[in-house]
Specification:
- The complex is a heterodimer of chains A (416) and B (166).
- Chain A has 416 residues and is mainly alpha-helical.
- Chain A has helices spanning 10-18, 20-29, 43-62, 72-83, 87-114, 123-145, 150-162, 170-178, 185-215, 229-237, 249-274, 304-311, 322-336, 340-343, 358-377, 383-412, and strands spanning 32-34, 246-248.
- Chain A folds into 2 domains: 31-222 and 237-297, Cytochrome Bc1 Complex, Chain C (Up-down Bundle), CATH 1.20.810; 305-416.
- A two-stranded antiparallel sheet of chain A has the order 1-2.
- In chain A, helix 6 packs antiparallel against helix 9 (185-215) and helix 12 packs across helix 16.
- In chain A, 31% of the residues are buried.
- Chain B has 166 residues and is an alpha+beta fold.
- Chain B folds into 2 domains: 2-34; 45-165, Rieske Iron-sulfur Protein.
- Chain B is built from 3 helices and 11 strands.
- In chain B, the strands form 3 sheets. Chain B has a 4-stranded antiparallel beta sheet with strand order 2-3-5-4, covered by helices on one side. Chain B has a 4-stranded antiparallel beta sheet with strand order 6-7-8-9, with no helix packed on it. In chain B, strands 1-11-10 form a 3-stranded antiparallel beta sheet.
- The termini of chain B are far apart.
- The model of chain B has no long low-confidence stretch (mean pLDDT 88).
- Classes of the chains: A mainly alpha (416), B alpha+beta (166).
- At the A-B interface, helix 8 of A face loops of B.
């Protein structure tokens, strides 16, 4: 393309220079999505939209927020909430959005697990997705610190304290992360940096990787069917849309997604305007005080299951302290989802309800996570502590036994 | 062939320089996250013990934690491994965070014990857990005795002796 002819239109002028035509084809009108899908396949677009909403609302909050222990609390609770025009709206959007984004992430994740969309060529989609989950968790945790209320402070204290359990370097590591012997101004400022710059940059990078990872193995479908995307797309382009198993990303797939998105945003803004209090813990409206621990510390709902795994082990087993056991289990819980594609030894890519053994495993896991979430919020005393212990053990056992369950399943179905 | 090996050499040389630069920048980044010198020097707290009243709890702040300092009355007995003698008087020096879930217990002058409002744990005046959920006595901060001055954050012989007994 060395020779340029005079452009007849503005579109052509840009097309000559940026290859818009080709770009739109590759990214939109000839990016093929299976037809046999349901509303659960809209979660990716929902998450992209939610991330955008969080970035935009965050930018407005950033204009008035002050990352300093003496000013942070008032800059949020007085300046943004009372003085800035619609400041309360941006704060509520940001807080509710952070909570809802995890709801959708979990739906997205368990849709992937249910339909087996993590194996047979789709491993990188799964791993990049799990990377996004970890990055969103870091983003949620660092953001929760910023209003500098009592819950902000003590969540930061407890979570950074976790690193103290690492053998040998633990104690020094905690001081290094905090930049002080306790959670202090240096801690707040560096986590502010992480929250508004480094982690969001990493998230954007991971989103690009996640989308890219979809291009070659393609999106899974409701039946877990493998077919030739080239042949099906040729059919579609030739006009046989009815018999083709695929549709273009734009306008066909996205128009359905936007429909789901419409309902979702109604729900989201209902929460923002009428039920924002669930994302606004009353304890966090007391200013951070390092010398006064709240009677009961708990994380936001989306971290409860892993928090419960952390504290589920409250007594010594075989000479290893409960604290160390909890830490080991916690580390296991954070990492084990990454290797799910290799723990599932069955070659079946089918919805869980069509897999003879995996279906029990899947619903058992969901039930266990719900129990962990509920008991993660309750004080760990008496019977609660034992339920926490049992459900933590169950969580570990589910993943340890998965290779055996799926190998038995593979044998039963004859490797299909 | 000549070209290939030259290119290979240039590649290796570049790799070596980049590796040195990479490690150096990582070190610099690590240093940037280190606690500042002012923070490190503020990691010590000194308390003058001479002015304290017996049976009246003094709370000092060391590294963001409350430190209980209690001067004993004549009739309060010292506990080996938990009580320190400075001059003619005995003292308890301990981190004022309940070992159950980190609340700050209150001192009751009349009962001469510590009571935690959160979950009802109790400790004796020497910080030994005597009731409720706390799993162990109150932790001891590293300290040094310098005349009648208590230096928190440094390990003195008295502290080492107490740790050896505990």
């Amino acid at each position: 393309m060395a020779e340029f002819k005079q452009a007849d239109s503005m579109y052509e002028w840009f097309d000559q220079r940026l290859g818009i035509d080709k770009f739109l084809k590759v990214m939109m009108t000839e990016y093929w999505i299976p037809k046999n899908i349901n509303f659960l396949w809209a979660m990716g677009v929902l998450l992209t939209v939610m991330f955008t909403i969080l970035v935009v609302s965050g930018i407005f909050l950033l204009m008035y927020y002050k990352p300093d222990v003496n000013m942070a609390f008032d800059s949020v609770n007085y300046t943004i909430m009372q003085e800035v025009g619609y400041g309360w709206l941006f704060r509520h959007i940001h807080a509710v959005g952070a909570s809802v984004v995890f709801l959708v992430i979990y739906i997205h994740m368990f849709t992937g697990i249910y339909y087996g969309s993590y194996k047979k060529g789709r491993e990188m989609i799964w791993i990049s997705g799990m990377l996004l989950f970890v990055l969103f968790s870091a983003e949620g945790f660092s953001g929760y610190m910023l209003p500098w209320g009592q819950m902000s402070y003590w969540a930061a204290y407890v979570i950074t304290e976790i690193f103290g359990g690492i053998p040998l370097i633990g104690g020094d590591l905690v001081v290094w992360i905090r930049g002080n012997f306790y959670v202090s101004d240096s801690t707040l400022t560096r986590f502010f940096m992480l929250h508004v710059l480094l982690v969001p940059l990493a998230i954007i990078g991971a989103i690009v990787l996640h989308f890219y990872a979809l291009r070659f193995p393609h999106v899974n479908n409701e039946a877990g069917e493998f077919f030739d995307f080239d042949k099906e797309s040729e059919k579609y382009l030739a006009g046989d849309k009815k018999n083709s198993k695929v549709v273009p990303f734009w306008p066909v797939f996205l128009s359905k997604d936007f429909f789901v998105l419409g309902f979702f945003l109604l729900f989201f803004f209902y929460l923002v305007f009428f039920h924002y209090d669930f994302a606004m813990d009353p304890v966090n409206f007391d200013k951070a005080d390092g010398l006064k621990t709240p009677a009961h510390i708990y994380p936001e709902w989306y971290f409860l299951w892993s928090y419960e795994v952390l504290r589920g082990f409250f007594f010594e087993i075989a000479g290893i302290s409960g604290k160390s056991l909890g830490l080991i289990a916690f580390a296991f819980a954070q990492g084990v989802f990454f290797v799910l594609p290799w723990l599932d030894r069955s070659p079946m890519v089918k919805p869980a309800n069509q897999r003879p053994y995996f279906k029990y495993w899947f619903w058992f896991l969901i039930a266990d996570l719900i129990v962990l979430t509920i008991f993660g919020k309750l004080p760990p005393t008496g019977a609660n502590a034992w339920v926490g212990f049992a459900s933590s053990i169950t969580f570990l056992m589910l993943f340890i036994t998965l290779p055996f369950i799926t190998r038995a399943e593979a044998k039963k179905v004859g490797g299909k | 062939m000549m070209n290939e090996s030259r290119r290979g050499f240039v590649g290796k040389a570049f790799g070596a320089v980049a590796a040195v630069g990479g490690v150096a920048s990582l070190l610099a980044m690590k240093k940037t996250w280190d606690p500042l010198p002012s923070v490190m020097s503020a990691g010590f707290t000194t308390v003058d013990l001479s002015g304290l009243e017996a049976n009246k709890l003094e709370i000092a702040v060391w590294r963001g934690k409350p430190i209980f300092i209690l001067k004993y009355t004549e009739d309060m007995k010292p506990v080996e491994g938990r009580t320190v003698k400075v001059g003619d008087h005995y003292y308890s020096v301990m981190i004022g965070l309940c070992t159950h879930l980190g609340c700050i217990p209150a001192y009751r002058n009349d009962e001469k014990d510590f009571k935690c409002a959160c979950h009802g744990g109790a400790f004796t005046s020497a910080g030994v857990n005597s009731f409720g959920p706390p799993p162990r006595p109150l932790d001891l901060p590293p300290f040094k005795i310098d005349g009648t001055t208590l230096v928190l954050g440094e390990e003195g012989p008295e502290y080492k002796a107490m740790m050896a007994k505990a």
